[in-house]
């Protein structure tokens, strides 16, 4: 054992002398423990690959030293002092790295500015000088809470044409290249968002005597210069704004106000597509009911036991965290997602479009339109449902929001958050009992560590994706050619399918028969008026040339008569019923029941049609690889969940049919009415087009298709071709995006290496960067800055070799 004697004075404080001996103090004044720097570096690396556990580390080391005669005089002294030393060492290393990054960013902007004379004097003038009196928390670095870290921006407009320096530092593949040329229906970037309620934190308890049941205070703040976290103040501001907007509801109480609060359509209202929404309200309501995430009032983590209930993150398609937010509410409140979405949109150029994948993207889209959230960004956001949760949505919703159907934008699945949560699962027990600030600091450390691993594996990720996509394209291309239809024809058929199947569904109404008959009366009145007008024109025909006017009126009369016939047939009135008779049968229960029965039948056929298309996807999935088994199981589960709804509609239809049979026997008006056959429940799920289920409304309702069924509904080759065409288009889009990302990766590497070389070359002499942390003041002379820049150059060289 070596003994070192330190003579401490104001000029040579103990921490400085310990650092010169390769030891790191546990406190800035009168430290009682110093740890070797190599040991701290090892522990810092260990605790980002394992769950951080200083207690186990200290207990093991204490036992190891005690067996060799080295005993600590105070209990638990090693754990507390080692933890302090490790935390301050990690902060110091991060601050040094952040200062180096700031210098490189200054060099990058100067190197890109053609009008700037490259010199050491100019570089020195542009470097941000830190004063010893500047608190650490008042400094800004390139992270999620600072747009540019106070780095001078270019004045030539290029900064507005590319994503921010922060986004480029997070993912070189998505944001590191030159502005890409957007293709048809192809967004510039793809991101996904999700919440995790496993990363909870218990309430802080006051341990003072007599205050045991009171909630304790937060632990001291820990500075994290590399944070990707949105500040709590920003989230609170979003929470207040959202509450203020949503509270502007009509004063009337009851079901309509409750529906407005839950972003669903009010009861007893006609189904329709809201402006800007591709799906009807009925479909959006059912999707919202199917997902717990759509119910912000659902308790997922009780605030009675937890101060922090979870976290929400937004990731790029390469599973890299761009921003994350700490959650403190019991449910998945929408303002967290809005804050994350606004944060990334603010970092993008004004002409960039963003594909936004979320478990409940349809509900998010609906809320943004209804409440006018993010109006400046909404036109540039394309919404999609993550693949893992798509089959929990209605079929109509999948047609518009499924990532494999909604446009041509590759094979991104939107499940990067699930993979990220898996990487953090080892932190669940530890973070449950940590302090408020330490929990967030540990999460930032883990995200930084994971980001470094992802950065090294980007080239390998691209290679795997290109290989996998090419294989899928080779498999799908011959199947598409075997269908015998062109890609443009299949895309047109799919567009027609989406439009038809997205039509609002007829809702049941107590006054449906009255409305239908009133429509006939109104049409007949219009026709009578038109006949009078035509007769008047014919009487004037001898005086004036009115042939064109008479022809126009005659065409209008023909169209009105056709509408009358269609409306009359709609309630099964095949004879010429006078207006007086129509008024008499307005309140007949038979016709009210008949109209409601048609609505039920329409819903049943729609549900069966959705099941048919989902079953086709499942049959195709059975031939896929083992890696897709999880997706297949989700398809099966979703289909089984829908079966009771379909069976219930069929039973309701048959029950209404029995009532109609009884009413026809006692009602003279409906004595000649024709009734459809009953639905056989045993053959309901065979989905045979010749089944009686389709013979009234649905697949063979020729009036809706002009007498001929469309190819997308009647031709098996067209239906199969649509699937293969979408697969081919998505594979081609994915390959194009991968090549663009490869070019972006090369551009980012060239710029990063050039900027670091420039900073290392023009680092002036005599200038000092002062780093102030909790344990004292540390200085980074230019010689040290040059050393760290050389280390970064070496790391970039190793990264380039790995990417090659």
TrEMBL record:
InterPro entries: KDZ (IPR040521). Signal peptide: none annotated. It comes from the Eukaryota. Residues 201-218 have a biased composition (Basic and acidic residues). It holds the Pfam family KDZ. Residues 199-225, 256-275 are annotated as: Disordered. PANTHER family: CXC1-LIKE CYSTEINE CLUSTER ASSOCIATED WITH KDZ TRANSPOSASES DOMAIN-CONTAINING PROTEIN (PTHR33096:SF1), CXC2 DOMAIN-CONTAINING PROTEIN (PTHR33096). This is CxC1-like cysteine cluster associated with KDZ transposases domain-containing protein. It comes from Hydnum rufescens UP504.
């Amino acid at each position: 054992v070596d003994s070192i004697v330190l003579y401490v004075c104001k000029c040579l404080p103990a921490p400085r002398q310990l650092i010169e001996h390769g030891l790191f103090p546990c406190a800035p004044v009168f430290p009682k423990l110093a740890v070797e720097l190599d040991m701290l570096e090892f522990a810092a690396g260990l605790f980002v690959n394992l769950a951080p556990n200083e207690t186990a580390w200290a207990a093991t080391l204490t036992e190891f030293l005690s067996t060799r005669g080295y005993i600590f005089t105070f209990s638990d002294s090693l754990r507390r002092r080692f933890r302090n030393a490790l935390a301050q060492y990690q902060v110091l290393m991060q601050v040094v790295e952040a200062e180096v990054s700031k210098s490189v960013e200054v060099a990058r902007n100067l190197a890109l500015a053609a009008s700037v004379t490259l010199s050491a004097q100019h570089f020195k003038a542009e470097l941000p000088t830190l004063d010893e009196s500047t608190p650490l928390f008042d400094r800004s670095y390139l992270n999620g809470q600072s747009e540019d870290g106070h780095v001078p921006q270019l004045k030539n407009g290029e900064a507005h044409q590319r994503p921010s320096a922060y986004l480029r530092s997070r993912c070189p593949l998505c944001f590191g290249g030159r502005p890409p040329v957007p293709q048809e229906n192809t967004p510039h970037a793809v991101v996904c968002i999700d919440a995790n309620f496993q990363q909870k934190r218990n309430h802080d308890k006051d341990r003072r005597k007599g205050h045991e049941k009171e909630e304790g205070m937060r632990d001291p703040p820990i500075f994290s210069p590399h944070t990707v976290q949105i500040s709590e103040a920003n989230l609170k501001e979003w929470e207040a704004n959202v509450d203020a907007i949503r509270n502007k509801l009509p004063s009337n109480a009851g079901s309509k106000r409750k529906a407005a609060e839950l972003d669903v359509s009010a009861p007893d209202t006609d189904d329709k597509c809201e402006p800007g929404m591709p799906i009807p309200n009925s479909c959006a309501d059912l999707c919202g009911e199917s997902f717990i995430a759509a119910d912000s009032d659902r308790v997922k983590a009780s605030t009675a036991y937890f101060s922090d209930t979870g976290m929400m993150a937004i990731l790029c398609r390469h599973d890299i965290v761009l921003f994350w937010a700490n959650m403190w509410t019991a449910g998945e409140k929408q303002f967290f997602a809005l804050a994350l979405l606004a944060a990334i949109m603010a970092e993008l150029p004004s002409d960039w479009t963003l594909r936004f994948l979320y478990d409940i993207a349809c509900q998010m889209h609906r809320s943004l339109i209804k409440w006018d959230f993010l109006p400046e960004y909404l036109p540039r956001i394309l919404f999609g449902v993550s693949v893992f949760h798509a089959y929990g949505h209605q079929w109509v919703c999948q047609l518009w929001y499924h990532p494999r159907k909604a446009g041509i934008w590759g094979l991104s699945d939107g499940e990067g958050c699930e993979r990220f949560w898996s990487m953090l699962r080892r932190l669940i027990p530890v973070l449950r009992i940590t302090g408020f600030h330490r929990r967030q600091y540990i999460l930032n450390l883990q995200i930084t560590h994971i980001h470094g691993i992802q950065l090294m594996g980007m080239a390998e990720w691209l290679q795997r994706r290109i290989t996998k996509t090419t294989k899928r394209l080779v498999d799908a291309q011959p199947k598409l050619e075997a269908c015998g239809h062109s890609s443009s024809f299949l895309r047109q058929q799919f567009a027609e399918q989406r439009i038809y199947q997205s039509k609002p569904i007829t809702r049941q109404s107590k006054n449906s028969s009255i409305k239908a008959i009133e429509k006939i009366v109104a049409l007949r009145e219009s026709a009578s008026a038109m006949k009078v007008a035509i007769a008047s024109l014919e009487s004037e025909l001898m005086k004036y040339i009115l042939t064109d006017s008479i022809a126009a009126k005659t065409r209008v009369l023909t169209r009105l008569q056709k509408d009358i016939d269609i409306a009359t047939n709609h309630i099964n009135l095949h004879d010429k019923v006078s207006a007086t008779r129509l008024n008499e049968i307005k309140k007949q229960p038979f016709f009210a029941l008949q109209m409601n029965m048609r609505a039920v039948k329409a819903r049943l056929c729609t549900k069966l049609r959705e099941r048919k298309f989902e079953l086709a996807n499942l049959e195709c999935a059975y031939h896929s690889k083992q890696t897709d088994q999880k997706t297949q199981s989700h398809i099966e589960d979703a289909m089984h969940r829908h079966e009771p709804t379909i069976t219930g509609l069929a039973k309701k239809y048959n029950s209404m049919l029995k009532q109609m049979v009884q009413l026809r026997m006692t009602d003279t008006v409906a004595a000649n009415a024709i009734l459809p056959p009953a639905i056989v429940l045993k053959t309901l799920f065979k989905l045979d087009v010749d089944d009686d289920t389709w013979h009234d409304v649905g697949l063979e309702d020729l009036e809706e298709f002009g007498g001929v069924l469309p190819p997308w509904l009647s031709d098996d080759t067209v239906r199969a071709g649509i699937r293969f065409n979408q697969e081919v288009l998505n594979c081609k889009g994915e390959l194009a995006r991968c090549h663009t990302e490869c070019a972006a990766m090369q551009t980012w590497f060239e710029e990063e290496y050039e900027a670091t070389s420039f900073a290392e070359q023009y680092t002036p002499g005599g200038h000092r960067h002062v780093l102030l942390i909790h344990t004292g003041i540390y200085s980074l002379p230019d010689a040290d800055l040059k050393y760290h820049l050389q280390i970064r150059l070496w790391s970039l060289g190793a990264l380039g070799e790995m990417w090659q």
